[in-house]
Amino acid sequence: LFLNQLQKDLEEVKELLTKATRKRLRDVLMTEKHKLELEIKNQPPPKPKDAAEEEKSLLGGYTVKINNYAWDQSDKFIKIYVSLNGVQKLPPENVLVNFTERSFDLLVKNLNGKNYTMTFNNLLKPVSVEGSSRKIKTDTVLVMCRKKREEKWECLTQVEKESKEKEKAAYDTSDPSEGLMNLLKKMYAEGDDEMKRTINKAWVESREKQSKGDTPMDI
């Protein structure tokens, strides 16, 4: 605002200079002109908006984290399908995907007054940033991750793979009864009340048979 006032003063001084005929008046006006030009030059530049605040104002509404998706793959691509009603009506620049070699971030801005985000870190294998893209379809965003090597992925992320390997190792033992025990423990921990009652009943019946000398159900 102050800078605008200075510029208006300078314009008026310049206009007066074109009309002034007396040397003394012209000298005074020239001095004032130089003074104003120097003052304008030394004005600090307008502060840029804080990037986060600017992004916030652009986004508006509140942000929802996307947890539901489906995925598929071809020889060249990993394809992640994200369902978002009406996404095809947005301007294309409102659907952003940022890729790195082992991750991607999806941001959908201002869809029905909300913003939607999804982040995948630690992708199982490296992808080509340049070859990856996104497509907007009816009620769906399709994220296309270009594989660096044309090979089959057994899952999407390294974490998912490690989790599967641990689970497999727990059941894949040389002692079948130990594997069964591990499986029952997992079923009990994750099961509902009905599942827990069923497992408890099987355990009690097994112990009773063992105590009677019958062939036990070894769990």
Automatic annotation (TrEMBL):
<dbReference type="InterPro" id="IPR007052">
    <property type="entry name" value="CS_dom"/>
</dbReference>
<keyword id="KW-0007">Acetylation</keyword>
<dbReference type="Pfam" id="PF09032">
    <property type="entry name" value="Siah-Interact_N"/>
</dbReference>
<protein>
    <recommendedName>
        <fullName>Calcyclin-binding protein</fullName>
    </recommendedName>
</protein>
<dbReference type="InterPro" id="IPR008978">
    <property type="entry name" value="HSP20-like_chaperone"/>
</dbReference>
<comment type="function">
    <text>May be involved in calcium-dependent ubiquitination and subsequent proteasomal degradation of target proteins. Probably serves as a molecular bridge in ubiquitin E3 complexes. Participates in the ubiquitin-mediated degradation of beta-catenin (CTNNB1).</text>
</comment>
<dbReference type="Pfam" id="PF04969">
    <property type="entry name" value="CS"/>
</dbReference>
<dbReference type="GO" id="GO:0005634">
    <property type="term" value="C:nucleus"/>
</dbReference>
<dbReference type="Pfam" id="PF05002">
    <property type="entry name" value="SGS"/>
</dbReference>
<keyword id="KW-0963">Cytoplasm</keyword>
<dbReference type="GO" id="GO:0005737">
    <property type="term" value="C:cytoplasm"/>
</dbReference>
<dbReference type="GO" id="GO:0007507">
    <property type="term" value="P:heart development"/>
</dbReference>
<dbReference type="InterPro" id="IPR037201">
    <property type="entry name" value="CacyBP_N"/>
</dbReference>
<keyword id="KW-0539">Nucleus</keyword>
<dbReference type="GO" id="GO:0031625">
    <property type="term" value="F:ubiquitin protein ligase binding"/>
</dbReference>
<dbReference type="InterPro" id="IPR052289">
    <property type="entry name" value="Calcyclin-binding_UBL-bridge"/>
</dbReference>
<dbReference type="InterPro" id="IPR037893">
    <property type="entry name" value="CS_CacyBP"/>
</dbReference>
<feature type="domain" description="SGS">
    <location>
        <begin position="142"/>
        <end position="219"/>
    </location>
</feature>
<dbReference type="InterPro" id="IPR015120">
    <property type="entry name" value="Siah-Interact_N"/>
</dbReference>
<keyword id="KW-0833">Ubl conjugation pathway</keyword>
<feature type="domain" description="CS">
    <location>
        <begin position="64"/>
        <end position="157"/>
    </location>
</feature>
<dbReference type="GO" id="GO:0015631">
    <property type="term" value="F:tubulin binding"/>
</dbReference>
<dbReference type="InterPro" id="IPR007699">
    <property type="entry name" value="SGS_dom"/>
</dbReference>
<keyword id="KW-0597">Phosphoprotein</keyword>
<dbReference type="GO" id="GO:0044548">
    <property type="term" value="F:S100 protein binding"/>
</dbReference>
